[in-house]
Amino acid sequence: METRTSPFLPALQLSVALFATAPDAAAALHAALLGAAKAAPEAQARMRYACLDASTLVSRAHIDVALDAAALALAHGTQRCHTREAEVVFRIAAGNNIGDALRTFGLSPTSTHVLLVHLGPAPADGGRSADAQLAHMQALLPGAELLPLEQLGAPHIVDWARVRKAYKLRDLGAGSDTNDAALQRRIRAREIDCVVGAVACKAVM
Fold this sequence. Notes:
By secondary structure, the protein is of the alpha+beta class. Helix content is 46%, strand content 14%. A hairpin with a 6-residue loop joins strand 1 (2-5) and strand 2.
């Protein structure tokens, strides 16, 4: 798990963790998120996370750019969503429909890799310590394996067909020599640049 502050929101602590989920854990968390919308404020506070399907995230830069865009919008009062967590998901999407963003990038009952993002007070202001925050995240996904954030974008995690559809990318590798490893790496790097660029451009539009 990584914990840091944003230069745009220095009063808040940003915590990000990647998990490989245990069977049924994603489904249980998804159900809990839906239930929290009608729950008491205490229960809602426990679920104040941006829960992302990591199969839609192509690199560390992808999520980092979206997090900075969300923090900047929140700092300037230009956010498009009612909650900080929804703003994070919205900023990852290329379009402006928050419902589509949640359906495409948010946690689903079948997610196998989940990125949890929490924006809350720093420990000095009554927020959780890094250890307590990690324990809280792990309690939401019992049995899940904590993974290094460097695994974001790993080939066994990313669903490129889903990503291309979400960002309206054509398959840059269509018709290419799939046995040419160097060529395939260059194609994938271009696709990643297109995705990250789309998120960055949305932040300034």
